[in-house]
Write a structure and sequence with these properties.
CATH superfamily: Gcn5-related N-acetyltransferase (GNAT)
CATH class: Alpha Beta
Structural class: alpha+beta
Family: Belongs to the acetyltransferase family. ARD1 subfamily.
InterPro entries: Acyl_CoA_acyltransferase, Ard1-like, GNAT_dom
Distance between the termini: 15 Å
Radius of gyration: 19 Å
GO molecular function, one term: protein-N-terminal-glutamate acetyltransferase activity
Protein name: N-acetyltransferase domain-containing protein
Keywords: Acyltransferase, Transferase
Helix content: 25-40%
Strand content: 25-35%
Bound molecules: coenzyme A
CATH topology: Aminopeptidase
Number of strands: 12
Order of helices and strands: EHHEEEEEEEHEHEEHHE
Length: about 240
């Protein structure tokens, strides 16, 4: 299962919104995705499964009832499905980020914000969210000079808390009471961004055994995860 992690573009936003609607109760209008990607085009990332070609049917198999469009060049019918970013390519995760542009906080040093992150259910526990986050944190620091990044997470969200707190080493700043519409509290979290730590060649293996980590651990990490979890190749 080849997974590619690449920068998000405006062509991805329908699929990003679709993934968001599947995975989270905090949803946004398309123009909000557009605002992120047009304002900070290098800061948001998507994970794509590039091997979904078996899900494209031949033109002869066309079912009148199904939602398909014709890929004229390849004489095939392509499923009209918001999980597909292109023929045979499914969006399986995204991270949407921005720089803090709140006019009331102009005196703060440049800082970024993680607006939304999710991975489709059948692709979880493969390291995809960690890789999306590390790419985004690096870009926010390197391209937009963010000195730190902040986010909110539900108190009950064990998976995300583990990812942010233990894997990515965010610190908990405070508990914001009834932050979410349903009344749940949020942890407000922050991570100071250090370019050296974030550089892909210095990725430590998920925050563990840092002293024993080889200097360039990114590729071996990816391969380890891929072999362990069944992904055959992953491109960052
Ligand atoms: C949270 C979420 C993005 C994690 O995605 P993922 O691709 O499965 O995460 P990863 O595989 O990169 O895992 C990162 C770490 O979190 C841990 N983790 C992932 N899911 C977990 C779970 N359900 N329970 C406990 N730990 C979990 C992994 O074991 C890994 O830890 P490690 O570094 O110690 O090995 C995913 O579960 C999701 O999309 N959830 C719904 C949307 C959501 O909650 N978004 C975050 C909103 S703030």
């Amino acid at each position: 299962m080849p997974i590619t992690i690449r920068r998000a573009t405006v062509n991805d936003i329908i699929c990003m919104q679709n993934a968001n609607l599947h995975n989270l109760p905090e949803n946004y209008m398309l123009k909000y995705y557009m605002y992120h990607i047009l304002s900070w085009p290098e800061a948001s990332f998507v994970a794509i499964n590039t091997d979904c070609s078996n899900e494209i049917s031949n033109i002869e198999d066309k079912d009148e009832e199904s939602l398909e469009i014709e890929d004229v060049e390849n004489s095939k019918m392509v499923k009209l499905d918001p999980t597909y970013v292109g023929p045979g390519e499914k969006l399986v995760g995204y991270v949407l980020t921005k720089m803090n542009d709140d006019p009331d906080q102009q005196n703060e040093p440049p800082n970024g914000h993680i607006t939304s992150l999710s991975v489709m259910r059948t692709y979880r526990r493969m390291g995809i969210a960690e890789k999306l986050m590390r790419q985004a944190l690096f870009a926010l620091r390197e391209v937009y000079k963010a000195e730190y990044v902040s986010l909110h997470v539900r108190e009950s969200n064990r998976a995300a808390l583990h990812l942010y707190k233990d894997t990515l080493e965010f610190e908990v700043l405070s508990v914001e009471k009834s932050y979410y519409q349903d009344g749940e509290d949020a942890y407000s979290m922050k991570k100071v961004l250090d370019l050296d730590e974030l550089h892909p060649k210095n990725f430590a293996h998920r925050g563990k055994d840092k002293e024993n980590v080889l200097e360039d651990d990114l590729e071996s990490d990816l391969l380890e995860d891929i072999l362990k979890e069944g992904i055959e190749s992953i491109v960052v």
